[in-house]
Amino acid sequence: MYKYTLKLEKPAYVTVGFKSEVKNFSVLNRDGKIFYIREFEPEARTFDQFNVNEAGIYTIISGQPVAGVKLTGVRYHKPIPMPKKHWNFDGPVKMIWKNINNSPACMIPKKREVYLNSMIKSYPIGVCNFVIAHELGHRYWPDEWCCDLYAINKVLRSGGNLYTCYYALEKFLNRSPSKMERIKKFIENIRKIDYGRQ
Ligand SMILES: [Zn+2]
After folding, report:
1. Is 0.90 topped by the overall pTM?
2. Which domains are delineated in the chain?
3. Is the peptide bond before 11 cis (omega within 30 degrees of 0)?
4. Ligand 1 centroid, distance to 137 Cα (angstroms)
5. How many whole angstroms from 139 Cα to the centroid of ligand 1?
6. What is the CA radius of gyration of the chain?
7. Cα(125) to centroid of ligand 1, in Å?
8. At a CB cut-off of 8 Å and minimum separation 6, what does 197 contact?
9. pLDDT tens track of the chain, all 198 residues?
10. How many angstroms is it from 32 CA to the middle of ligand 1?
């Protein structure tokens, strides 16, 4: 494994190139927590591009040495258009660490309570944010795909990465017809996103 130190004085859109193809790599923050993880499928790749929305010192860990890094301003996606709200359970929400049915998280909109499984702590920060935002989406929609879109928008608006949303969906859903439906909706909707600079 190779380590490369990335010092960011401000948030940045990072282009990283590797000496040869890698199947995956990860980026740790100063505390050693996974900030970003990328798995290339079906083919390995020699470069990637991603947002880092907080200044600081990061470590890129990869199977091949980093050949070079280019930094530009953070890129923001335009928000995905959302369907009309189905219901509204706005108001303060209580976050409770409690494992319910081995699912990463769940929400009871009427009680305004979100239950978080501590398993999510071992996933990248953006994945945790995605999961929490998805649950908060249930304040407005019962449908999973609506909450996925809501979460994608939240992550993208904060300068997070689209791939992180995909990663979260892929890791936390089972291979069921409903999973395939969610992924399909996800792909359909990301096609509508334009890249724009702020
Ligand atoms: Zn849900």
Report:
1. no
2. 2-73 (2.60.120.380), 94-197 (3.30.2010)
3. no
4. 8
5. 10
6. 17
7. 19
8. 73, 75, 76
9. 999 999 999 999 999 999 999 999 999 999 999 999 999 988 999 999 999 999 999 999 999 999 999 999 999 887 888 999 999 999 999 999 999 888 899 999 999 999 999 999 889 999 999 999 999 999 999 999 899 999 999 998 999 998 898 889 888 776 677 877 877 777 777 766 655 443
10. 29
| pLDDT for the residue 197 | 41
| The two three-digit tokens of residue 136, written as one number | 């908060």
- Please state the three-class secondary structure of the chain as a single string: CEEEEEEECCCEEEEEEEEEEECEEEEECCCCCEEEEEECCCCCEEEEEEEECCCEEEEEEECCCEEEEEEECCEEECCCCCCCCCCCCCCCCEEEECCCCCCCEEEEHHHCEEEECHHHHHCCHHHHHHHHHHHHHCCCCCCHHHHHHHHHHHHHHCCCCHHHHHHHHHHHCCCCHHHHHHHHHHHHHHCCCCEEEC
Q: Give the tokens for residue 13.
A: 């859109």
